[in-house]
Amino acid sequence: MIAPAFDAVRRDALDLLGELPAWQLPAAGWQRVATALAAAAEAAAATDAEALDAALADLELAGPVRITRLGSTPVLPPPPPVRERTNHLVHALGGDPPQPSPQPYPSPHPSDDPPEEPR
Asked: What pTM value is reported for the model?
């Protein structure tokens, strides 16, 4: 039986891991994410709620920020090793593999419509 504390952290982990496929980070950021995912996988294997919670905190800190500076390093989607590690961790935690979120399309602007032809 899984301890209630671990189960609560496990659910938090699955929520965070479900968001990860939509993240956009510089290459160095993905290195930090990979390190946090490795720590989370180790904690999950040991069913260590405290270690998993700490790894999740590191993962959140490695995640994207809302403000991007001008001239900053280009951001990239998750590289294949990170996606694979994320899927393995989700599976180990008993969740469904995360699905990449669809890319949002900008809403059409009225000026984007073709001009009406005269009658």
From this structure: 0.74
| Radius of gyration over every alpha carbon of the chain, rounded to an integer in angstroms | 19
Check if the beta carbon of residue 42 is closer than 8 Å to that of residue 51.
yes
CA gap 51, 49 in Å, rounded:
6
Residue found under tokens 């180790």: 42
Four-residue CA torsion sign, 63, 96, 39, 4 = positive
| 25 token code pair | 């980070």
How many Å is the maximal CA-CA distance in the chain?
A: 75
Nearest to 64 by CA among 33, 88, 40, 38: 33
Task: Read off the pLDDT of residues 9-54 as tens digits, 9 standing for 90 and up.
Answer: 999 999 999 999 999 999 999 999 999 999 999 999 999 999 999 9
